[in-house]
């Protein structure tokens, strides 16, 4: 797997003592060759079990280009084994949370289950069974072959996926990394069940696997359970794989692809080094200096100063199996490609001549610290990093080596690698750009305590509600402010005003420019963002604990005293309108927008949080300032701070930072509720994408209707597994090879939302998919749920909520929104108890009450 080292490790040793966050990783190899890594983490009752198999698209031998590794991943994950049927595995998964998935890359395939510590032995046994005892039934083979082909077709509509595949094909002419992981359609169609069996028996052997367990476990107990679970595995000889060496690149390469999209995407990739080369370290720091943070060189120059691009990023990819690349990729207007390319190259070539400043070097290193520490919050990410390090370097503690070498990076070493690798002969330039526009008729569309992990509430004299939770596990803090707003306070003429104002909060105060704000957080290795949704807007920041006073001062400044410079208003409005056009390239956004416009009539939710181009174009600076004056007041704000804090000191910091923040009377507009639906509404939109997307939705409930929302969450679990594949819809629609993906979800608002099912399918299957969705809705209304299904659904709902409340960011957001919306900070602590009380009658009741008179929307390339 091509690896972006710049998002993996922090410079821990420079700024934070190793003992403050390091944990012992137990590492052993069992007799049959299985590599085992175990790390105890008792911060939360969560465990992640992950299996990494050393096989991916580059190791497919005579099957190169067929996507065999990816195809097999679809079948083995949850499939029939010699011990269980697919249905039995699915039933067990639902009892332990169903938080499972798998993925395939160039060099490995990974399978994982995240669950509670109570259920982790079951997760281990399931994964071991899948790895060692897969049967690859004819039924599952044929079904997943159809699913893989649908996924392949869907990827053809994704411009970034196409860009990076085009880059691989351009960079690699001999090495098998040039082949798409998913395979070529004609070769995928030729794959037989016997091919998969051959591949399975050849590559899925314990001595080709790494098992990682991280979380609330005892190491010796875990090791004993692992030995037992994998005891039936046998060591087998692996093929002697010798990958061809990619010959030197002697001249610039260029490739262009046209798609039905609205904006262009460009990638400049300079050939560099593999993972084990010492130049890895200065290249990684160089990439951070280029684009990490809003004040970084490329972001400031091309996005903010010259406004040539909408997005720009860089990264140093250093895989272990082939030469890597230093890449810069950008999203921009087609007519700006040449100008942007010239500016990017100019900025890169400057690094060959000039030394980076000490401040830039220090900032890049501190950014790496923060990323490393923040990445350790969840057991899932920690397990993934351990597995990939072991796979790539045969050393789970490679991070220590990496950090030690990063400390030695100097401005001179950065200039040396720039001179060595940043030259035109090593460049591969790839561009995905829009096709010429068709005629309009062709596209016509029909009290504060120091106790840990306890959220406490205090209301300050100015009305600001302060929530504090101490979590000293890692030296990091998240600060989040949520305020009522969003589309609920907008009209069609002002749609997008909340988001415009939110983005502009970070663009200057009387004391700090936009550059000052961005530079300050970049230097801290932190982050700050502002955005809006349907019901509220927010400012969020993250920093190391030692930087909280400085971060909080800036945080309060941008909320209380934004100046909304006219130049920034114009620039931000331009970027927002461009982002709206970019939504046209995303079938999910297109489907969501069509559904909201069709389903809601008078409700404010018919409007889009991102706004509409016509409304944004008319908004003035005075509108932004007036909106801020009205809604950015302390008595409309909940401030949540979660992390390694001293709570008493933090209260004092907040009071100091928000000095002068005065309350004001605030009134909200009267909301016109939608009348209950009386008939089926249907809208079909013609699209030039290859996938047909469907959403079938029904009038829903509100955030504060706790009894009904819990019952509808269980209904979601029964029908589709709460975000992960499962339930009736997955069984029937995936079982018949009708969809690539299908999910039900309960969309809640302060006004009534909706319950919906979303699916992606082939155009000719769209109506059949709609019919089967409605059939399963009728099944729910009939109460056709057995007791075992209900219990699995409740267990799934409880586990999914626990897994989604691990990090400081997750806990701060949940608490702030619950308090802002009137549920209170105790709401989440009562979820498990309330979910356990949901009965079959409750689920049938909400199905009968809400699932009537559907809104059906379809985006499809055919009428």
UniProtKB/TrEMBL annotation:
Domain of life per record: Bacteria
Pfam families, alphabetized: Peptidase_M16, Peptidase_M16_C
Keywords: Signal
Domain Peptidase M16 C-terminal: 191-367, 621-795
InterPro entries for the chain: Metalloenz_LuxS/M16, MPP/UQCRC_Complex, Pept_M16_N, Peptidase_M16_C
Peptidase M16 N-terminal domain boundaries: 36-182, 467-604
GO molecular function: metal ion binding
Signal peptide segment: 1-23
Family: Belongs to the peptidase M16 family.
Protein name (database record): Peptidase M16
Organism from which the protein derives: Entotheonella factor
């Amino acid at each position: 797997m091509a690896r972006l080292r710049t998002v993996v490790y922090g410079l821990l040793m420079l700024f934070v003592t190793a003992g403050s966050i390091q944990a012992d990783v137990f590492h052993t190899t069992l007799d049959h060759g299985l590599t085992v890594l175990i790390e105890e983490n008792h911060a939360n009752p969560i465990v992640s079990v992950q299996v990494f198999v050393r096989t991916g698209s580059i190791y497919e031998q005579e099957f190169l280009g067929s996507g065999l590794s990816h195809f097999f991943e679809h079948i083995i994950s949850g499939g029939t084994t010699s011990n269980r049927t697919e249905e039995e595995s699915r039933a067990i998964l639902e009892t332990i949370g169903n938080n499972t998935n798998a993925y395939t890359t160039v060099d490995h395939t990974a399978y994982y289950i995240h669950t509670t510590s109570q259920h982790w032995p079951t997760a281990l046994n399931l994964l071991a069974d899948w790895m060692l005892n897969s049967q690859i039934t004819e039924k599952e083979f044929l079904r997943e072959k159809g699913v893989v082909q649908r996924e392949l077709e869907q990827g053809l509509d994704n411009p970034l996926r196409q860009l990076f595949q085009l880059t691989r094909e351009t960079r690699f002419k001999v090495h098998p990394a040039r082949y798409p992981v998913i395979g070529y359609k004609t070769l995928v169609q030729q794959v037989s069940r016997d091919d998969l069996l051959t591949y399975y028996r050849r590559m899925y052997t314990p001595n080709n696997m790494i098992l990682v367990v991280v979380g609330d476990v005892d190491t010796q107990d875990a090791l004993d359970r692992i030995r037992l679970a994998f005891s039936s595995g046998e060591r087998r000889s692996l093929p002697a794989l010798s990958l061809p060496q990619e010959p030197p690149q002697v001249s610039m390469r260029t490739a262009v692809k046209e798609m039905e999209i609205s904006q262009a995407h460009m990638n400049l990739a300079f050939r560099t080094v593999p993972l084990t080369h010492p130049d890895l370290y200065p290249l990684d720091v160089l990439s951070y200096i280029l684009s990490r943070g809003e004040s970084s060189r490329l972001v400031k120059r091309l996005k903010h100063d010259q406004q040539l691009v909408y997005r720009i990023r860089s990264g140093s990819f250093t895989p272990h199996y082939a030469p890597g690349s230093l890449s810069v990729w950008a999203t921009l207007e087609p007519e700006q490609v040449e100008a942007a390319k010239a500016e990017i190259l100019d900025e890169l070539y400057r690094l060959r001549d000039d030394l980076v400043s000490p401040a830039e070097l220090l900032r890049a290193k501190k950014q790496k610290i923060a990323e490393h520490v923040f990445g350790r919050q969840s057991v899932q990410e920690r397990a993934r990093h351990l597995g990939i390090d072991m796979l790539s370097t045969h050393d789970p503690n490679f991070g220590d080596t990496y950090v030690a070498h990063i400390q030695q990076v100097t401005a001179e070493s950065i200039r040396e690698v720039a001179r060595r690798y940043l030259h035109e002969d090593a460049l591969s330039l790839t561009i995905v750009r829009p096709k010429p526009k068709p005629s309009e008729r062709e596209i016509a569309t029909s009290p504060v305590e120091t106790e840990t992990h306890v959220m406490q509430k205090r209301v300050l004299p100015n009305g600001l509600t302060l929530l504090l939770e101490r979590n000293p596990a890692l030296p990091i803090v998240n600060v989040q402010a949520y305020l009522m707003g969003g589309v609920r306070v907008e009209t069609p003429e002002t749609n997008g005003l909340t988001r415009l104002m939110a983005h502009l909060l970070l663009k200057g105060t009387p004391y700090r420019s936009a550059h000052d704000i961005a530079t300050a957080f970049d230097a801290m290795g932190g982050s700050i963002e502002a955005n809006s949704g349907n019901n509220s807007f927010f400012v969020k920041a993250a920093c190391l604990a030692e930087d909280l006073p400085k971060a909080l001062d800036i945080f309060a400044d941008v909320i209380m005293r934004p100046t909304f410079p006219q130049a920034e208003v114009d620039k931000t409005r331009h970027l927002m309108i461009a982002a709206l056009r970019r939504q046209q390239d995303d079938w999910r956004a297109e489907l969501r927008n069509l559904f909201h416009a069709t389903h809601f009539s008078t409700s404010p939710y018919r409007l889009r949080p991102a706004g509409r181009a016509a409304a944004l174009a008319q908004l003035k600076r005075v509108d932004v300032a007036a909106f801020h004056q009205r809604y950015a007041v302390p008595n409309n704000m909940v401030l949540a701070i979660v992390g390694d804090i001293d709570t008493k000191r933090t209260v004092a910091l907040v009071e100091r930072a928000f000095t002068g923040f005065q309350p004001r009377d605030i009134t909200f507009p009267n909301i016109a509720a939608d009348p209950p639906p009386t008939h089926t509404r249907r809208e079909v939109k013609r699209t030039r994408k290859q996938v047909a997307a469907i959403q079938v939705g029904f009038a829903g409930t509100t955030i504060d209707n706790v009894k009904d929302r819990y019952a509808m969450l269980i209904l979601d679990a029964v029908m589709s597994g709460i975000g992960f594949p499962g339930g009736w819809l997955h069984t029937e629609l995936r079982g018949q090879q009708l969809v690539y993906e299908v999910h039900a979800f309960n969309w809640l608002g302060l006004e009534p939302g909706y319950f919906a099912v979303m699916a992606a399918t082939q155009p000719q299957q769209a109506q059949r998919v709609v019919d089967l969705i409605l059939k399963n809705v009728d099944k729910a209304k009939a109460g056709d749920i057995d007791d075992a299904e209900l219990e699995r659904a409740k267990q799934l709902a409880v586990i999914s909520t626990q897994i989604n409340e691990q990090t400081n960011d997750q806990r701060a957001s949940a608490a702030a929104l619950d308090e802002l919306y009137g549920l209170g900070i105790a709401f989440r602590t009562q979820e498990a108890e309330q979910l356990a009380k949901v009965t079959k009658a409750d689920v049938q009741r909400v199905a009968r009450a809400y699932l009537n008179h559907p809104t059906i929307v379809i985006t499809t390339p055919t009428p």
